[in-house]
């Protein structure tokens, strides 16, 4: 039988999910020893750094790590030792979209999940509860079980649970402290339900019982994809309406406010923007599209695919607006891009809309100056190199400059794009920016304001006050 009392937890994968999730488990369950392991030594070293320079930026995370690291929270590259000792193992490795082979561009790459699972089977000498934390296609737990059962030692039993993570980057710690729900899926066998109860008991240390939902394995796996698809769909819906607003003179902020007042709809995720980014929404919807196609449901696949296509359209529409506003050419012009992360309060740049915009500006041969409070220069160069695979980095560097303040970025520019809704951009002194921007000959304040407002409209526009007194 699987152990009923969880005393030692191993988490494979010390990334954006594994790190914060298991750090919070360690904080809330001082009686459980939690070891987070990763093959990436640099990442583990950062988690262990004496000055708590943890590898991901997440408000509140350092405080949690400070309280438990060395007490009941450990970070290590010794994957085998942590597997051997644990009663319960979270698999929290990356599941990116496949880049080649069958399902390329849509299906999730399960290579990392499979190697972590094989490692568990090869190393474990006692029974374990294995928990899928990564976002995976429906029925992945079945493949994991096949691998574990085919490769395990006699007398060793594995119970597989699905426990998808619903945290949002930027608010991960608050989300983990007070989750809307914790979802646990298990086989509906006696052993499956026992394992489910053991994990539910861990969460019950701080999550109210009514928020811990227990369901079947496949429902749990599919619920994660479903939640992300429906959130992304709201963003694509409001963005589709923003295009209609711009063509008709209606105001998208007013429309979204009015629509969000409907108690059946609600205001969340109804903010028009330059499009969604991040490592999950696009990947998970494409995963759902692939699943639908594999199940011979082409209409369902087309329905969800359109959510992603709308997002791509919104990004390219925004780039075009910038070009149109700058008199139909941006060649040789200077553009400031404020924000590079895919959203505020994270340093994560995966699928960030800023990358697509900058790629478009570079292809129009504009000069771009970037400022982001959290993203490293190294990361920006890596992302731009990947986005422009046929352009050598040296050529990109001739067109792109990275600076260390918003005001510096805005100096002597013809346009300013706010690509990430960092709070500090609300406090920019627009009067100073205005005084230091490049203006076209004869252009007055109102023309300038219209130009800047156009490019701002998609992000923080309604919060930013450009009505300063220019004094002439
Ligand atoms: N980032 C989010 O906001 C978020 C939210 C909910 C769910 N998820 C899902 O959680 C999963 C993890 O996402 P993430 O953002 O933390 O990814 P990540 O890339 O930040 O972290 C994954 C880590 O796993 C490590 N790893 C891969 N294979 C390994 C192995 N065999 N042994 C040990 N370590 C290994 C990698 O080195 C990496 O550090 C994904 O499936 C993702 O879809 C992510």
Top keywords for this entry?
472 residues, alpha/beta, Rossmann fold, 2 domains, eight-stranded mixed β-sheet, four-stranded parallel β-sheet, globular, binds nicotinamide-adenine-dinucleotide
Care to give the gist of this entry?
With 472 residues, the protein is of the alpha/beta class. 45% of the residues lie in helices and 12% in strands. Strands 3-2-1-4-5-6-7-8 form an eight-stranded mixed beta sheet, sandwiched between helices. A four-stranded parallel beta sheet has the order 11-10-9-12.
What does this protein look like?
This protein is of the alpha/beta class and 472 residues long. Helices cover 45% and strands 12% of the residues. The chain contains 18 helices and twelve strands. It has an eight-stranded mixed sheet with strand order 3-2-1-4-5-6-7-8, with helices on both faces. Strands 11-10-9-12 form a four-stranded parallel sheet. Helix 1 (18-28) crosses helix 3 (61-68). The longest helix has 32 residues, at 217-248. The N and C termini lie far apart (80 Å). It binds nicotinamide-adenine-dinucleotide. The site of nicotinamide-adenine-dinucleotide has 27 residues, from helix 5.
